[in-house]
Amino acid sequence: xxxxxxxxxxxxxxxxxxxxxxxxxxxxxxxxxxxxxxxxxxxxxxxxxxxxxxxxxxxxxxxxxxxxxxxxxxxxxxxxxxxxxxxxxxxxxxxxxxxxxxxxxxxxxxxxxxxxxxxxxxxxxxxxxxxxxxxxxxxxxxxxxxxxxxxxxxxxxxxxxxxxxxxxxxxxxxxxxxxxxxxxxxxxxxxxxxxxxxxxxxxxxxxxxxxxxxxxxxxxxxxxxxxxxxxxxxxxxxxxxxxxxxxxxxxxxxxxxxxxxxxxxxxxxxxxxxxxxxxxxxxxxxxxxxxxxxxxxxxxxxxxxxxxxxxxxxxxxxxxxxxxxxxxxxxxxxxxxxxxxxxxxxxxxxxxxxxxxxxxxxxxxxxxxxxxxxxxxxxxxxxxxxxxxxxxxxxxxxxxxxxxxxxxxxxxxxxxxxxxxxxxxxxxxxxxxxxxxxxxxxxxxxxxxxxxxxxxxxxxxxxxxxxxxxxxxxxxxxxxxxxxxxxxxxxxxxxxxxxxxxxxxxxxxxxxxxxxxxxxxxxxxxxxxxxxxxxxxxxxxxxxxxxxxxxxxxxxxxxxxxxxxxxxxxxxxxxxxxxxxxxxxxxxxxxxxxxxxxxxxxxxxxxxxxxxxxxxxxxxxxxxxxxxxxxxxxxxxxxxxxxxxxxxxxxxxxxxxxxxxxxxxxxxxxxxxxxxxxxxxxxxxxxxxxxxxxxxxxxx
Length: 700
Prior knowledge:
Largest sheet: 8 strands, mixed
Strand order of the largest sheet: 6-7-8-3-9-10-12-11
CATH architecture of the domain at 3-128 and 196-265: 3-Layer(aba) Sandwich
């Protein structure tokens, strides 16, 4: 029987409904008992994993969720024997009667990649750059199976076809750098399922991917599970991803499992305050943008100096003396649920009374559109030369990074620029921030054409246009106290030391920090606090426009809510205009008033967020919205997912006609005449109701 036939048969046999019916049957493949992992450090012993017990059952998907540093990845690496020699591991990981923790590396290699396989977060680092993709997959087969080299290469091509790699025989001869991030992750999945393992450990397999690619990878993971019958352990911080694919979920905090149960039960009625906070801190696409987000106060505790009692108590709104007396054990909350909370019998009453996690102020879209324009971009173009040759380099083409972009940001409003990686969002932002004459088109900031500014005028205008970068770790100088970092722009524009000191204190308090922290260095702050510092620095000169380049994508979900609430508060208080670059449409839903959707260097749809999200006109916008996971298992399973085919075309060789037509799911339903027009004639951005769309056949 061919693999594709096996896949179809197993998909039917292992449907979600069938797996749920057998969820209570004791069919564990791996039993983890009292697993603890510590690492030595200069500060002391790092307690990365503390007394974790989990069962991994045949054919199910187990989601392990928590903030950074909660012990998720270390737990999965311990199970497969990939921890460094410095780690001290205790407990047991039983697989078919064998304790994997007692095996040496040679003994473990018989299981690793054969019985238990891993899909790593970064496929570029996990794949060998000097070997072809086909050779690497074939090598995994040759190590564990008694097959010929020819048969292994044939199977490698078949596996590439199963995971959705186009032209698999041809692409098997390619190297990892010739694939996109999504395609590399597909290769990782093909490698993992090559020997039909019983367990797949997936460590943040979709974190660095666009939502459209994420949807494709999750579909491939489901195919891999159905084809092999393997259990999947999905390590992630994204509760939306878990809602759509997992059967059970384990919530980890400070190295311990604090809640575990079926996704339906845990999401419908979370019993641990930490779980409640995580679920309520996530911006949801299916909730109106006026809704508020919950922010979990404080930062995760240090694994070196854990508090006495419950590790979550310092951040828990329900904490009392009983919580700090001793560490709560994971006990039965119901026949299928376990929780670790000293006050679990009271949690639902506290939640219903509104005493858990007070909601912060959310962004409320401006009801009336101001006539005043903060930023206007017309016909913006930016190309990069495509060069060839080593000694005598010559131009052989152009990369059309930005091609005819029009944007209007009105004063006091937020404009979100969204799209997949490589669509030109960041290049557009950099062209605006450069404040120089563009290659083509015009950029007008606060009513002034930047191409006509003198050097002194351009410097003066920089006060009015500031930026908050994506990575709060890289955007602050590690050698400067944060007070000095905030003072730099003030000093550059001639503010006196006395006024600088007053302004620094004012800014720190504005972003929720205090004056005592001004002398501390960036490494003494959490990621969310560092981003608050970056926002304070950007606000130092009282700008009128703030450019936000993926400002929360590097943050944990609980911290993200606090920063989003802060941005909403600042906009309403200071009357700021935001140019918000993001790939996360659920975040855009809660931050932006207006949206511009980019594809391959061009705007394909624009308009008010509420209008575009409720009634998308362009097929690409519709696909983006359908790919965003919603943290509700019942809602997520009912949704119709639009999976885009193929990869984003190269901006060096864009398709003729509509640039989206090569991946468009609507084109096949059009008349031959209209489909031919899509392939030959590029649509212009035309006004439609409250917005504009560039499509020959708008959806409504």
